[in-house]
Amino acid sequence: MKTIWRWGALALSLLLVFGASAQPPVKNPDTYIEATIGDVVSLDPAWHYDTASATAIFNIYETLLFYDGDKIDKFVPVLAESWTVSPDGSAYTFKIRKGIKFHEGGDLTAEDVAYSFQRALLQDRSGGPIHMLLEPVLDVYSIDELAKKVGDLKACQMVLEAATVKGDEVTFKLAFPFPPFLQILAGSWMSILDKEWVIAKGGWDGKCDNWRKWWDPKQEASELFKIANGTGPYKLSRWDPGKEIIFERNDAYWRGPAKLKNLIIKVVPEWGTRLAMFEAGDADSITVPRPFVAAMKPLVDRGAARLYGPLPGATAQSGFINFKVKEGSPYMPKLGGKDTPDLLNDLSLRRALNYCFDVGTYIKESWLGEAEQLRGPIIKGRLGYNPAQPVYEFSLAKCEEELKKAWDGKVWADGMRLVFTFNVGNIPRRFAAEMLERHIEDMNKKRPGRPIFSIDVLDLPWPTYLKAMEAGELAVFWVGWLEDYAHPHNWVHPYMFRTGAFAVGQNFHTTKDVEFKPVYATFLEAKKYPTLQDLFDDLVVKAKKEPDQRVGGRAEKIYFELNRLAIEYAINIQSIQLWTRRYEQPWVLGWFYNVAYPGTYVYWLWKEMPKVKEFKEPGSFDIDVPGGQTLWVYNLGPGKATLTIGAESFPLDPQGNSVNRFFPAAGKAIVKAEAATTIQYGTK
Amino acid sequence: MLAYIMRRLLMLPVLLLGVTIFVFAIFSLLSPEMRASLYLQDVPKTPEAMERIIKKYGLDQPIHIQYWMWLNQIVRGDFGWSQTAQRPVTEALLYYLPATLELSLWAMLPVILVGIWLGILSAVHQNRLIDQALRVFALIGWSFPTFVFGLLMLMYFYAKLQWFPAGQISDWVTREVIAGTFVRYTQMYTLDALLNGRLDVFWDSLRHLILPVITLSYVQWALLLRVTRSSMLETLRQEYIMTARAKGLKESVVINKHAARNAMIPVATMGGLLLIGLLNGVVITETIFNYPGIGRWAAEAAIRLDILGIVGFTLFNGLLLVVGNLIVDVLYAFIDPRVRLE
Predict the structure, then answer these.
(1) CA nearest to A274, candidates B333, B219, B266, B159
(2) Cβ of B47 and A499 within 8 Å?
């Protein structure tokens, strides 16, 4: 036994030797570390189309303009000094800022801007982001599509003509007026590259004779796959795929160097490991999947983590209804035992599916209450979201009523079979499908002796699911959409336009002779359309080309119509918008939420323990901010508060969004608490 | 013996070729759309996106043509691109293998030393309290899911006490590697630290290795304890042990010199196989401790249908098993003169 004790003592002493380090109040004070799930896929701005790559590119490169603070409809110039839009809305001219250098030393010029734009259009990799630019600029969804129409050389010449340089100005010409163009230009795919540097690295040479050489490259074939040279606040130091990506501060950054010297984004797929890193202080922020938010609560409660949210996110989940399933599909609907491809072309049946869907329970059980029922395809916070739009509430009585009406009573009399599908492993979608299955099949109790309502719930592997969805083989399917850019067009297009990602598998053209009587957009004429798809297409195009994009303006009213039609024609089974959260260490200051940001923009952040002001009752206090410093204010709760800077006022909801404001000159901010609450703030 | 070794080595290419045909044949069961998912992060945003990907990567080609194209690549020394590792397959193997090798070698020390020691202790004290306690201890280790044990270790020794971090190395060492002040000769940090004369890096690397090593050891101890114990018990019943005792030798000499050495023959075989097993990749341990090893990569490649990554890993695995088993056979013959390799 003595031997065991000797080993035990040795083990303990080893633990003490190794474990001698004590945690300082702020760990790694000059480095921001994020532990996340996804790895960077490519550092080529025109190639990447995922959040992890976008976050990296976002910190290295810059765009011509960007979102103003937490707003998604107001922009500030970044690499552009200013811009103008032609009266007809089809040309955008940007004056390029002077004196900006790329990390490798090159000077930013208007040529670089035009080249970056043209290179992206010509590269257009399969499944990449460039279809967003091609749509407004050349009225196609792929450059190959254009080349097949007009030939390779002409297609390239059209691309060159779409971005022209005059002095220090660049003009982009569009195929038609397209107001969301600014949102698309603010995306990380439109990051500005150094033309000479890219060519030197083997990139497109700027000529039209052999552009196909650089067209649609594989991930590793892109010359910018693993290297980067932007104008942004951080320089790429090293990317170790599967492990981490490391950045160092660009000390010569034109807006002044970032407050934190290093940035590291680590790939940590295992949740327990991320949590351990956070608890040990080795991660300043971690990705917390929704099922694990309970594990973070004790940390938040004892002040060891700061929570923002839940905040409205840019993702929606919907059930989709196919009006006419493709012949031969294994998921064919049946009416009275017979194959009936257009079973769901019946409005009453589609409405019944909506009434039978208990959206409240779905949100509560599947999303832990962190979602909101939508009123059409457009999410809350975007132009065209209509809070007054009536929606289907859960009602088994109304469901029964509509089922009795469907197919002039045939459905109720003869029974039906439907297949509900979702992708393998998606638990919330399974819950949605099974819940609806239960409610529909429960109707059988009310119609004894008749052929039954039979619902099959089927999970399919993701690729099979996508293929079947695209081919129009699925009858009812659940899927989600993550916004590409903060504009309603990015919602009505996939949900309603004939080539949209989901609409392509829904066959809206099956519904013929559709009368349109405007309710909101009364400036549009009432008319009859050959099919429902024609009506949707016409309105989607009218809305995207409408120059008046103001709140209360004409575009908003057309989007209201689209929401209304989506609900009235019941093209979906309840859409919900998901909420999001962010968890960070209490020593991370400066962060604020903008739903359009692809990830954390570290330039705004610094690390120190915040100053704290506790209110036991309503009251106010002043914060003096020295000139050239940033003020950050956050409301820990429980009461509400308001921040006033000059004439501007910002709401500070408990654990809601914070405020980050730069003070060019010394100034004062006033925090007013409406009830007992705790305010955290800092200046740097 | 030499003829035996040559025969086994000559069979190696045939075996590896067979393995690759088998892997490709399995993949022929998957539709092009399923394999295209490797290149899609989300819902295709345009209708033709999936078709373009299938055509671009030749996923609609018959599998024998894809295999032939791959063989042609191999002849040129190109094992292809692993989409999951985001680097060429050869580079991925060379990147992940040293990390797993380092972890396995460090794990083998406590696995072998403590495992054998516990086995001998258990055999010598057969059916007494210490034997029963050790057997229960081993049984718990064997039946404790690795991910639960690993997570418990991580939560206590990393999250709470902050003694032993997750990952492979601290960020300050990575910065030194980037700055060129620390040279990676072997890609194994502990060894490189010694070659650089950097004890601080050595300690840091060791701190990162301790929890995964303990996790791996605890699971393997049970196996080694049982093998050593039964081998030792069998040896202790041999007549030459009784003779040694009858000669009046001290019990420690009887155990350590006469019994333990002979009892080690099956243990040595087991140790070799354990090492091969560890080098195959320890997926769960590498995942929990965020350790960038070959197992974690292979698991991800399998999940995402990264065919070239899987083929690369399978080839490596085949090579490892054949060569590893050969070495174990040769060692066995070397340790036990009664064994002859024909």
Answers:
(1) B159
(2) yes
Dihedral sign of CA atoms B133, B137, B138, B144 in order: positive
Instruction: For residue A526, count other CB atoms closer than 10 A to its CB.
Output: 9
Whether the per-residue pLDDT at A260 is higher than 70: the answer is yes
Helices (H) and strands (E) in chain A, counts: 19, 31
Which of B34, B151, B162 lies closest to A461 in CB terms?
A: B34
Count residue pairs from A and B with Cβ separation < 8 A: 160
Percent of chain A with pLDDT strictly greater than 70: 96
| A243 touching chain B per CB within 8 A | yes
Contacts of A609 (CB under 8 A, 6+ apart): A25, A26, A586, A587
Nearest-CA distance from B79 to chain A in Å? Answer: 14
Contact B167 A266 (CB under 8 A): yes
Instruction: Please answer whether residues A260 and A605 qualify as being in contact, where contact means their C-beta atoms are separated by less than 8 angstroms.
Output: yes
Nearest CA in chain A to B49: A127
Q: Is B3 in CB contact (< 8 Å) with chain A?
A: no
Using pLDDT thresholds of 50, 70 and 90, give the confidence band for residue B42. low
Tell me, letter by letter, the H, E, C secondary structure of A361-384. Answer: HHHHHHCCCCEEECCCCCCCCCCC
Give the mutation candidate from B46, B117, B283, B305 for the A interface (greatest A CB count, under 10 A).
Answer: B46
Helix (H, G, I), strand (E, B) or coil at A535: helix
Nearest residue on chain B to A51, judged by CA atoms?
B41
Alpha carbon distance A256, A250 (integer Å): 9
Q: What is the tens place of the pLDDT at every residue in A302-359? A: 999 999 989 999 999 999 999 999 999 999 999 999 999 999 999 999 999 999 999 9
Provide the mean pLDDT of chain A. 93
Backbone angles phi, psi at A352, to 5 degrees: -60, -40
The encoded tokens of residue B53 equal 């990907």
Whether A484 sits inside 8 A of B45 (CB atoms) is yes
| pLDDT recorded at residue A21 | 44
Give residues 514 to 553 of A whose Cβ lies within 8 Å of B.
none
**Is some CB atom of chain A closer than 8 A to the CB atom of B145?**
no
A453 phi, psi to nearest 5 deg:
-85, 120
Does pTM surpass 0.95? no
Q: Which residue of A has its CA nearest to B200?
A: A18
Alpha helical stretches, state H, chain B: 2-27, 32-36, 49-56, 63-75, 89-124, 129-143, 146-153, 171-179, 189-195, 199-236, 239-246, 251-253, 260-279, 283-288, 294-303, 307-335
Q: What is the mean pLDDT of residues B189-216?
A: 96
CB contact, 8 Å: A141 with chain B? Answer: yes
User: Left (φ > 0), alpha (ψ -120 to 50) or beta: where does A273 sit?
Assistant: alpha
Is B250 part of the contact surface with chain A (CB cutoff 8 Å)? no
Q: What are phi and psi of A491, to 5 degrees?
A: -105, -45
HSE-CB of A537 using CA atoms within 13 angstroms: 14
Q: Which two tokens stand for residue B123?
A: 């055999």
Dump pLDDT digits (tens) for A42-90: 999 999 988 999 999 999 999 999 999 999 989 999 999 999 999 999 9
What percent helix, strand, coil does chain A show, rounded to 5? 35, 25, 40
| Nearest C-alpha in B relative to A276 | B159
Q: Which residue has the higher pLDDT, B83 or A640?
A: A640
Inter-residue contact B209 to B201 (CB < 8 Å): no
Q: State pLDDT tens for residues B7-37.
A: 878 887 888 888 888 877 777 777 777 777 6
Q: Chain A, 211-230: which have a CB under 8 Å from a chain B CB? A: 216, 218-220
**Nearest-CA distance from B59 to chain A in Å?**
13
| Cβ neighbours around A103 below 10 Å, total | 21
Residue B189 forms contact with A (CB below 8 Å): no
- Give the residue-averaged pLDDT of A268-282: 94
Tell me the two tokens of residue A138: 């050349």
